[in-house]
Amino acid sequence: MSELDFDTKVFDKEYIAVADRQEPIVRGGRHLFDRLPAAFDGVRQLGVIGWGPQGTAQAQNLRDSLGDAVRVVVGLRTNSTSWDAAVRAGFTPEDGTLGEMYDVIRRSDMVILLISDGAMAESYQDVFAALRPGATLGLSHGFLLGHLEQAGDAFPEDIDVIAVCPKGMGASVRALYLQGQEVNGAGINASFAVHQDVTGRAVDRALGWSVGLGAPYTFRTTLRSEYLSDLSGERGILAGGVHGIVESLYRRFRDQGMSDEDAFRHSAESVTGPISRTISRDGLLGVYRLLDADGRKVFAEAYSVSYPVGLELIHEIYDEVRSGDELRSVVLAGKRLARFPMGKIDQADMWRVGQKVRADRLEDDIPLDPFTAGVFIGVMMAQIDALLEFGHPYSEIANESVIEAVDSLNPYMHARGIAYLVDNCSITARLGARKWAPRFDYALTQRAYPVVDDEQTVDIEVFGEFEDHVVHEVLRVCAQMRPSVDIFVE
Q: Could you tell me which residue ranges the KARI C-terminal knotted domain spans (predicted)?
């Protein structure tokens, strides 16, 4: 059995042909909720620790899915500012579903640790000490593994260590789950990992957790592969990259004579609106094929000058994550934030213009700008190629580079603004976007756009491999397992 294969006694595993590989998955759906008691066999209490974006969504989804089969309890610090919010969501100390975090950990058979990465790095030893022997520790991010390796430490040997990592922000995880009450199969895809299995039940508990969250399909990864691709992706096309791309394009279009409003429509609105919707429905090739002959020429030139810039930056980001530098920067930032909290990044002229544009928006009037499409897809393909080069599974690459963007993050950006989403991500993602967005902006402005705008010779050979790239077949297969409804944003 390969590292990414698995056996399950509760759910139906199938293999999908993803380009030249066979990858095992489990399809979700509410019709499987009656299998959850078997998947969580031996778990009487499930503690969800933290009330951030993922904690909020996961605690409510699992409570709703598990019903009376497993008690879902939220654990928070006694003085947590989130205590009242958890109570409003129906978790209360009176009925035993809300308590102090370490008390909840000690009393739970399975603990899903969803506190911030910085807090995890500071408190993991106390968390480990509170876990029962034979308990299951669940993570939704591989950050802690990377931190332990940097610190020369390890997980306790007498516990299961698993992960379920939804490929979308917490608000999407909850919103699509609620839509699933009406349309079976609505949800956010997830990866899962089993790092330690001392009970023999780790795989089924991880799959039950994913199905209980509402994931339409769940694919296998490893904790290390997950944090390398996740941290790189959010610093790349998912958050930092897209933020830098649209800022650079906004200035370029405005410098070429567009009004502020039109520059915003041709940059940010175009990416989060028609470009993302077309990718979601018809793939990356669908965007290119939607253009006329002149538009395809513009797309190809924009792609050709942006792809090399993106590839270089993604390689640098990946090296910084793999070396531990990005993880250390998150831990160090946690010590500064009490004194120097992160301010919002929506105060620049561009984002104030965006508020007006969204208020007056006519969806059918948003242009699918071919230059913007070429730049965005060029950088997205650079991330895809970098993750391919580093050996990540096709499913993980497709989700971390494309599906999470167009089916989860970008719809929120379209409704609220790109800066809004960045300001409401995890602390780790917010830090990464703030650090790397200016790098994408600077590199594209200084090195990519002048080649086209100054009528220099564009190396169109860079575009030559686009139409025959393996990712198009990967996306075609993965698109068959996308959420069965489009996300709504309240």
A: 222-364
Average pLDDT, the chain: 93
- Helix, strand, coil percentages (3-state) for the chain, rounded to 5, are 60, 10, 30
What residue numbers does the annotated binding site cover?
Answer: 230, 234
Q: Which residues neighbour 197 within 8 Å (Cβ) at sequence distance 6 or greater? A: 160, 203
- Position 437 scores a pLDDT of 96
Chosen domain end from 163, 180, 214: 214
User: If pLDDT is split at 50, 70 and 90, which confidence band does 490 have?
Assistant: low
* 274 and 164, same domain (yes or no): no
**Cα→Cα distances 485→9, 275, 460, Å:** 29, 18, 38
Question: 240: domain CATH number?
Answer: 1.10.1040.10
CB 3 within 8 Å of CB 222? yes
State which of 188, 214, 240 marks the end of a domain.
214
Co-location of 417 and 287 in the same domain: yes
Q: Are strands 98-100 and 71-76 parallel, antiparallel or unpaired?
A: parallel
* Residue 475 forms part of a structural domain: yes
Residue pair 427/117 in contact (Cβ under 8 Å)? The answer is: yes
CATH number of the domain bearing residue 158: 3.40.50.720
Whether 141 sits among the annotated catalytic residues: the reply is: yes
**Domain contains 57:** yes
- Looking at the fold, whether 99 and 146 belong to one and the same domain comes out as yes
- DSSP helix/strand/coil, 468: coil
* Domain with 400 in it: 232-479
Residue 290 is predicted with a pLDDT of 96
Looking at the structure, tell me whether residues 248 and 317 fall in a common domain.
yes
Do 160 and 244 reside in the same domain of the chain?
Answer: no
- Looking at the fold, whether 421 and 467 belong to one and the same domain comes out as yes
Same domain assignment for residues 133 and 262: no
Supply the pLDDT for residue 341: 87
Q: Which amino acid is at 285?
A: L
- Stated pTM of the model: 0.93
pLDDT, one tens digit per residue, over 381-424 is: 999 999 999 999 998 999 899 999 998 899 989 999 999 989 98
For 27, 34, 197, 217, 280, the CA distances from 12, given in Å and listed in that order, are 8, 14, 20, 11, 27
The catalytic residue among 31, 141, 147, 414 is 141
pLDDT tens digits, 179-223: 888 777 678 889 999 999 999 999 999 999 999 999 999 999 999
Could you tell me if 237 and 204 lie in one domain? no
Number of domains composing the chain? 2
pLDDT digits over 419-432, tens only?
998 998 888 999 99
Binding residues for Mg(2+): 230, 234
Angstrom CA distances, 283 to 174, 400, 407, 409, 473, stand at 25, 15, 12, 16, 9
What are the DSSP E strand ranges found in 197-356? 217-220
The full DSSP string for 86-114 is: HHHTT--TTTTSEEEHHHHHHH-SEEEE-
